[in-house]
Amino acid sequence: KVGWYNAVLQPGFHLPYPDDTLAFVVLSTPSMFDKALKPFVKKEQLKIIGDPVDQCVSHHLSRVKEKFPDQKVDIIFDYEILPSRKPKFLAQTAAHVAGAAYYYQRKDVKLDPWGKKKIYGVCIHPKYGGWFAIRGLLLFPDTQVQFLQQFAPVDCVSTEEKRIELLEQFNFHWQDGRYRDIIEVKERYSEEQKAYFATPPAERFILLGLTQ
């Protein structure tokens, strides 16, 4: 429910919908690369002018919207920002309140070792660890779900030591991706997918066989 999200944020970040409005957080799993992105690029390569992943996600969520012709469906993508430069929604907070992935933050560590350093939080999925992404939000403004029950996300990094290790790796060594394996995962990115996301965005077109 939108109200779960708004309840944990300052008013400047609230979504402008009634509290009981139904929303879905959309995640991409490791298999997205092979099952969605590559077929999309192959079929739509002449139309790809922006980020291929963003265009692929937009394509698939537009198809979801088409499945509900009688309902209003609003889509907010993870990369969208307001004129104030603030994101349109805080993806990790949304994932946490939806019960999709646990958002580990500095406040989840009792004995804080970082002093005045800025420490960013990170979501960990109980099945995929850090090998997933939050891609967007589907909102159904005409659907009010007064009695929807909220479930907490799975706290899969439950010890103080592991949480410190996770936040250390994410904040200071994120390039090596070790934080993604903070727990034992069922599936991770393929070597091809790792190479794609490790490549600067401007050079990714070459990897996909697109000339830009």
UniProtKB/TrEMBL annotation:
GO terms, biological process: cobalamin metabolic process
Please give the catalytic activity noted in the UniProt record: 2 cob(II)alamin-[cyanocobalamin reductase] + 2 hydrogen cyanide + NADP(+) = 2 cyanocob(III)alamin + 2 apo-[cyanocobalamin reductase] + NADPH + H(+); apo-[alkylcobalamin reductase] + methylcob(III)alamin + glutathione = S-methyl glutathione + cob(I)alamin-[alkylcobalamin reductase] + H(+); apo-[alkylcobalamin reductase] + an R-cob(III)alamin + glutathione = cob(I)alamin-[alkylcobalamin reductase] + an S-substituted glutathione + H(+); apo-[alkylcobalamin reductase] + adenosylcob(III)alamin + glutathione = S-adenosylglutathione + cob(I)alamin-[alkylcobalamin reductase] + H(+)
InterPro entries attached to this UniProt entry: MMACHC
- This entry's Enzyme Commission designation comes to 1.16.1.6, 2.5.1.151
What is the protein's major site of localization?
A: cytoplasm
What keywords is this UniProt entry annotated with?
Cobalamin, Cobalt, Cytoplasm, FAD, Flavoprotein, FMN, NADP, Oxidoreductase
Q: Which cofactor does it need?
A: FAD; FMN
Q: Which GO terms describe its cellular component?
A: cytoplasm
Instruction: Report the sequence similarity comment from the record.
Output: Belongs to the MMACHC family.
Q: What is the protein name for this chain?
A: Cyanocobalamin reductase / alkylcobalamin dealkylase
